[in-house]
Each structure stands twice: as C-alpha cells, then as structure tokens.
Amino acid sequence: MKNKKSNILSKLVVYSLLLLGVVVFIFPFIYMILTTFFTEAYQLPKPGEVLTVKPNLENYDRVWNEYKFYRYFLNSTLVAGVAMVGGLFLGAMTAYSFVRFEFPGKEILFRAFLFTMMIPLVLAIVPQFTVIQNLGLVNTYWGLWLIYIGGGVVGSTFFLRGFFETIPKDLEESVIIDGGGNWRIFWSIYLPLSKPALATMAIFSFQGTWDEYFVALTIIKDEALRTLPIQLMMFQGQHASNWALVFAASLIAILPVVIIYIIFQKRFVQSGGSDGAIKG
Amino acid sequence: MMQMRQGIFILLLILIILATACGDQSIMNGQDDKSMNTNQKKEEIIIWHTFSEKETNIFENYIIPLFEKDFPMIEVTPVRQAYSEELKSAIIARASTNKPPDIVRMDIAWLPKFAQLQLLYPVSNFEDFKDIKNRLYEEPLASNLYKGKYYGVPLNTNTKVAIYNQKLIEKFGIEKLPELMKELIDIVEKNNLVIGIDDLSPWETYHYFHGLGGVLMNSSYSKAQGYLDSEQSIKAVKKLLELYKNGNLTPKLFDAPNTWEGVLDRTYFMIDEGPWFYSVNSQEKIDFINELTVSSPFPETDGKRAVLGGENLVISKGTKHLEASWTFVKWMTSEVPQTQLARTGLIPSNKQINLTSFKQFPYYQTYLNSLDDTIIRPPVAEWVEIREVYMRYFKLIFTESISVEEALSRAAIEIDELLEEKGR
Predict the structure, then answer these.
(1) What does the DSSP 8-state code read for residue A239?
(2) What sequence ranges are listed for the domain ABC transmembrane type-1 (chain A) (predicted)?
C-alpha cells in the first residue's frame, strides 16, 4: 500500500513537471495566437489585455485575401514540394552510389560535398547568382530549384549514406539471384528499408526550402513569383510593425510544416526495417 | 513492398507533374507583369523600395503615374521589398553581377558601404546636380557624401524628437520643456521620472551619449581611440549608467520597454521617436496621442540634437538607363512628388515644401525644427560592424559585467581595427 502511494506521488511530481514544461513551451505560441486577435498591435500587448481579447479571424482573413497570401502559399508549395522530392530522390541515389560503388576519388568527393555545406550562404550567393544568371534562370523557379535541389542533394547524401551503410549487404544477394541489378536493389531494398530516414529527411528538406528567404529574395524579382517568407517579411515595417498581422501571417506560414511533421512524425523515431532480416 | 513501390511511384509522379506544370510557369507569372509590356519604345527603369504599405499606395498609384505623364517615354517599375540585412546582401549580389535594379531607395546608413564597393553612380557627376542641391535640407544631403562625391539624393528624411507625457508635465508643474540635455536630466532626477528607450543600439542611445558629452570618433571618422575612450566619453556613459541604476532610464531595458504605450500610460515621462510614432496610426489614434503627449525637439547639446535617419535615392553603377534614372531621381525631389509623399507622414527632404496645410499631422513642425541640428552617424562603410561593437560593449556596461573604462577602451580598439582593416 505504501509502495502504491509513493508511486502515485512520484507520478504526480513527474506529471506536474511535464505539465509545467508544456506550459512554458506553449506559452509564447498561445501569446502569439492571442495577439492575432487584436486589430492593431504596434507594440506587443500586455498579458492582461491578451487574456481579455475577443477571438476573431479578421487578421487571418486580411492576410489571406487582402494581402493575397493564397498566391504566395501556392508558390511556396510548388517551390518547396519540387525541391523536397527532387533533392530527396537524387540524394538517395547519390548516397547509394557512395555506399555500394567503389570509384576513384570517392572519399575526396564526399568530403568536397561536406565542405560545400560549411560555406555560409552569404558568401556563396554572388557566385550562385552569377551561375543562375549565365544560365538565364534569374527570376524563374528553375533557378531556385537548381540551388535548392543542389544544396538538398548534399544534405540528403550525407544523412542517407550513414543510414544505407547499416543495411546488410547480404540482403542484396536475393535480388542478384533473381537476376536484379543495382536499380532493383536500390528500389526494392534500400528505399523501402530507409523509410524512417527518408521521412526525416523529407521534413528537414521541406522545412528548409519552405522557410528559405535569402536565395528567393535574390533570384526572384517579380512580386507574383514571390514565396511566402519574402511576403511574410513585408509585414515587418522598417520602423514599426503591426504584430497582429505579422503573427497571423506567421501562423498561416507554419501550418504546412506542422502538417508535414504530423504526417511523418511516426516514422521519425523508428529504426531501420532491416532488424532480423537475415538469419544469424 | 508493393505499398512502398506505389508510394515512391506517387512521389515521382508528383515530381513530374509539378515540374511539367511549371513548364510555362503559368502559376508564377503575374497578370501585372510589366516585363510583358510589348511597347518597345519606352525605356523601363526598375526601382526597389522599402516603402510601407500606405506609402507604397501613394508612390505606385499617384506619384509614378504623375511622372509617367510628364515623361511618357519612361516607364517606372516599382518593386517593393522588405527592409532587412538580407536585402542589402541581395542588392550587392545583383549589383556585383550587373543585374541590379536601376534605382534603389536606400537607408542613409547603407550608402557608404555601397559607395565603397563602387556599386553606385556618383550623381554629383551630373551637371545639373548643383541645381537641385539648393532645394534640399543640408544634413540629409550630406548623408550622400562619400569621399568628396555625392552618391545619391535624399528622398525623405527623419530624426527623433522628444515626446513627453502631458499629464506628468502638469503633475510636476514643469512650465518649460527642456531645451538642453542638462535641463532634461535635472528634471528627471529631481522628480524621479523615467526616460524610455527601446534598446542599446546607437539609434536609441547615441544622442544621449553625445548629449552627455561623449564622442565616438574624430571629425574625419578615422579614429575612435582617444575619443570613445576619452575621459568625457567615460563620464557620459557613467552618467547614463547611473540614470539606469537609479531607475531614471527604463528599468525594462532588457525586457520589453514598450515605449510607445509607456509614454501614453505615464510609465515614461519622455521617449524619443521618429515621425512613424504618429504616422502608422489612424487619424483617431493620432488625435488621441496628441491629447496625451506633447512633442518638442530633442534636448540640445553643443548645437546637436538627435540622430539623422531617412532614405536616399541612389542609381546603380551598372544601370543601362542612366539618363532616365537621373531624370526620375531629380523629379522625385521636386515639389509635387515630395508633397504627395508628405501625405503619408514622411518628412520631405525638399525644404521648400510648405507643410502648414497638413493639419492632420501637427507634429511635422517639431521634426522640421530639428532637422538642422541632427547628429550624423559616422558615414563609414564599416558602420554595421561598428554598430555591433558599440551595442556589445554597451550591453556589457549596462549588465555591469565590465567597467565603463575597460569597455570603452576595448570598443575603441576594436573600432579602430575595423577602420584600419578595410580602410575608408
């Protein structure tokens, strides 16, 4: 009985701490949502005002319709969607080649890949822009995709190579016996067994391009082609910002990332599917 | 396995559909895309600006059509951008590859950097530049000067003025608003009042530092040692710190000072702010603010008041439409567009504009009265880095992590290194 009591007590403490943690982490988010209910908020409202504000969707309506956020939303979905799928697919193939093929300069090439990840974007923007301009792709999404997918391939290759290396080589033998080649091994063994890693990478990749501001700002000129982050920044004035609109726009902008996370989060923590695939 | 195959197939399909869907980029091409204009005879100039929404409306719907009516052979394409550090890098990247916008409306603090990188066309090379010089306020015009040449013209200007809470003035029987910094300090100390500032950036504190006797650099902006670490500068910062410790400078400095609300609800006796303190609001709110506050030029020290702000119009060196761009830039400083801009609450850079008719903005006069006595932030290309040094050491001082003497001495050394490294 005593044991049970102390058990309940420790659970109570643990749950209280967890609840406190949840409150601490979620508070800024709630504050942000409540701020969007104000008509004007050039200075952040005080806690007392925040708690008495009447909920309404006026600012969301303004952001979506008056400021044409639907258009930039569509633009961003297109840009981030293609960049995610393209980067992931090419990255997986590149990672496969690093894991399963031996070729001269393999490690040097891989290190060169890693090196490009360490160059700050601000330094790379001028040469990148020069390349895009010479290809005649300034102010087009093809220019953006070239940079996003190019950068995405490097990231996914680095991430997936490690994952692919944990897949036992013996699994391939069954494919080889059946007459399958590398494509079949990649398609039927590596990709299915790497679902958790691919899902994780998909989230990172989507979020990365969905939030990307600097490259899009430099490459895209026409207002109609702009992506969400550029338009989101428009709400922030040089001297004063209406935080009610800024937060409403931000909340709309993070929605897809949250949805993507909810879809893929189950796969996030899973380990590979190859455990027990081979008899000892 | 089958499911996975289907999944990947669907993903690939999406990729192909999305990619082919943008073959003609139909989603992306706006109906208002001016590049589609087939009228070949017109010369198109592109201007990047960071006007607010209200200002953009006037600029794009009233001012540009007026110009195009006067100059039918020039077509102006405005592109609104958000004000950010990234914008600066984006303009540099575009200018470096000869793909810049023809004209940029640029923060006066950015100009020296662009001039140093030789990305701007020196407009003082135009013969008729001297003709328009006379119509402009002197200090804003001087913000375009870099190594003896003018790299732009001021489009709109601003500075900060002191905004006092009316009720507190009455409560403490203050008959005359402080004209000098010394008088302001006496009033707040005597009556235990609070001055509100937003943070420790030079924009917020430089005029207090200067007003209390501090000096950042020599007059040719080439040296900080001997100035920033001088006795008078140490004394000035010590006084600021003392005000902060005594609660005369906002105690919420590292929290959320909320100066705009604070001066209305009597938390602060005084704040200093630009014209946007009024102009972003509705007329009703402006009237409400005017009831609760009273404005006056920022207290003076040695003939100087608050920091100069504003925007200049500059022409990219890489422009292919130099004459057309200059025509537009010149025209923007003339009476008609300047008066239109003033309708949005921006302070014109043309001193001939009569603002007495703007009854809805009674605060205009206070700002205009302050314009001749502004402090110019050092017009050096390294200003962004110097600003960081200034803020870092001021933070260390105000958190009392380091002594005033040591902080200013180290800051002066770092600033001199920055100035030496890159050269002016």
Answers:
(1) S
(2) 73-264
Tell whether A137 lies on the interface with B, counting CB pairs under 8 A. no
Sequence-ordered list of residues with C-beta below 8 angstroms from that of B177, at least 6 positions apart, any chain:
B162, B164, B169, B294, B296
Give the CATH number of the domain where residue B387 resides: 3.40.190.10
DSSP-derived letter for residue B116 is H
3-state secondary structure of B265: coil
**Nearest CA of chain A to the CA of B84: how many Å?**
8
Q: Residue B388: give the domain boundaries.
A: 159-307+378-422
pLDDT of residue B21: 44
Q: Tens digit of pLDDT for each residue in B308-340? A: 999 999 999 999 999 999 999 999 999 999 999
pLDDT in tens, B8-61: 455 555 544 444 444 444 333 333 444 444 445 789 999 999 998 889 999 999
Determine the Cα angle at B284 with ends B282 and B285, to 5°.
Answer: 70
**Which of A215, A214, A217, A130 lies closest to B99 in space, CA to CA?**
A130
> Does pLDDT of A268 surpass 90?
no
Q: What distance separates the 2 farthest-apart alpha carbons in chain B?
A: 86
List alpha helices for B27-145, DSSP H. Answer: 53-58, 64-70, 85-96, 111-116, 129-133, 138-142
Q: Is there a domain that residue B414 lies in? A: yes
Alpha-carbon torsion B68, B71, B77, B80, what sign?
Answer: negative
The verdict on B22 touching A (C-beta cutoff 8 Å) is: yes
The residue of B2, B4, B157 whose CB has the most chain A CBs within 10 angstroms, and thus the best one to mutate to test that interface, is B4
Q: Strand B161-165 to strand B153-159: parallel, antiparallel, or no bridges (unpaired)?
A: unpaired
Q: With beta carbons under 8 A apart, name residues in chain A contacting B32.
A: 223-224
**CA A199 to the chain's CA centroid:** 10
For residue A238, what is the nearest residue in chain B, using CA coordinates? Answer: B83
Is B22 contained in some domain? Answer: no
Q: How far is Cα B23 from Cα B11, in angstroms, rounded to an integer?
A: 19
Q: Say if residues B342 and B272 touch (Cβ distance below 8 Å).
A: no
Whether B366 and B293 have beta carbons less than 8 Å apart is answered as: no
Which A residues, 74 through 133, put their C-beta within 8 Å of a C-beta on chain B?
74-75, 78, 81-82, 85-86, 89, 122, 125-126, 129-130, 133
Q: Is residue B1 part of a domain?
A: no
Q: For residue A122, which residues of chain B lie inside 8 Å, CB to CB?
A: 89
Domains of chain B: total: 2
- Spans of all domains in chain A: 1-28, 66-268
Residues 248-287 of B with CB under 8 A from A: 256, 258-261, 274, 276-277, 280-282, 285
Residues A195-211, mean pLDDT to the nearest whole number = 90
Q: Are B370 and B306 in contact (CB under 8 A)?
A: yes
Q: Is B27 on the interface with A (CB under 8 A)?
A: yes
Say yes or no to pLDDT of B167 above 80: yes
Do B154 and B176 share a domain, yes or no? no
Cβ neighbours of A237 in B, within 8 Å: 52, 83, 276, 280
Both B367 and B383 in a single domain?
Answer: no
Q: Is B28 on the interface with A (CB under 8 A)?
A: yes
Specify the fold of A66-268. Answer: MetI-like fold (1.10.3720)
Amino acid at A49: E
Alpha helices (runs of H) in B266-403, residue ranges in sequence order: 276-279, 283-292, 322-332, 335-342, 364-370, 383-398
Amino acid identity at A202: A
> Do B233 and B206 fall into the same domain?
yes
Q: What is the mean pLDDT of chain A?
A: 88
Q: Six-digit token pair at B110?
A: 């950015």
Q: Using the beta-carbon criterion (under 8 Å), do B97 and A218 form an inter-chain contact?
A: no
